[in-house]
Amino acid sequence: MTTARSTTAVNVLVAVSVGHLLNDLIQSLLPAVYPLLKDEFRLDFWHIGLITLTNQLTASLLQPVVGHYTDRRPMPYSLAIGMTSTLLGLLLLSSAPQFAWIVPAAALVGIGSAVFHPESSRVARMASGGRHGFAQSLFQTGGNAGSSLGPLLAAFVVAPHGRHYIAWFALVALAAIALLWRVGVWYAHAGIRRAASAVHHDEHHGLPDRDVRKGVAILLALVFSKYVYLASLTSYFTFFLIHKFHISVQSAQLHLFGFLAGVAAGTFAGGPIGDRVGRKVVIWASILGVLPFTLILPYANLFWTSVLSVVIGLVLASAFSAILVYGQELMPGRVGLVSGLFFGFAFGVAGIAAAALGRLADVTSIETVYRLCAFLPALGILTAWLPDARAGRR
Fold first, then answer.
1. What is the pLDDT of residues 354-392, one digit of tens each?
2. Could you say which of 1.25.40.10, 3.40.50.300, 1.20.1250.20, 3.10.129.10 is the CATH number of the domain covering 206-385?
3. Distance between CA atoms of 113 and 78, rounded to whole angstroms?
4. Which of the ends of the chain has fewer CB neighbours closer than 10 A, N or C?
């Protein structure tokens, strides 16, 4: 007999993925308009760093708190509420009369992200019907698409007309609020029942707390290796290509797009593959398996650098869905806390890594950054010590 838990609510998964697309599209507008803010308010780079720090810390540190709270007290309409915070930040960003108002605008956008990610990840798991990897991959692919569209829209809509045109994206936020409100209706009526059924089935895996803590620590170390390396490419790959091969900015951007396309494809593929062959296999292949390619990339010619970047993006990006679901299996009934912890940690690590790698490039060279970062996937060897929650349950 088909139960509520065994069926995949594809319409809900698509809705929450589209919501992720709209959320991350808006989130990516903030760094995309940094040049406009710098010129208009005559900012130094430390002002830009303060905006980034405020946004990243708010988004990173609040996510586990939100997830832990909603694990205990479900809030079906929190997704729409979080998007409302993002909307307010967007409007303040577009109309701020001085720099002092930009920082709270960045904080409001960060709060929206902090509420959205753990709760939307929870909804994706509720709607998965047991296909947890597929659900998380579909959800995260929406976010990747939004992050890539945001800078393009900023370039074509905001840059030619000025900062005040950011307000037009309030229409995107309003559409997202309406969509997420409908998701909240489903959450309140069907999602909570699904979540209760899942906890009833999964609450005992037989592992001691010591093994659970060790497993979570290993997974966070793997997230560290993945996101620091990805930060090196998303932030500095164009500079590396221009410096080493003397190509144009436009050509470098095309190479970056190839890498980001590989990331998007890998994000979508990793979850369903993990559902079929096991998440530990995906983590092994994704983190440690990419090591030969990262070691070769700093020394390759332009053609092979382009090919390797796509392969690296494809393989490395497949890990996060598997890591997140693995963490949820280690801590059943704590979906919000696990999602908030891993998303928040990933965001924070990426932000800190971008700043630290930029400083390293200033002190040494951009090539040095990639020679050192090439060894990060070696941390994938830690996968050997991951406890198996499913084996413990059996």
1. 778 888 888 888 899 999 999 999 999 999 999 976 655
2. 1.20.1250.20
3. 11
4. N
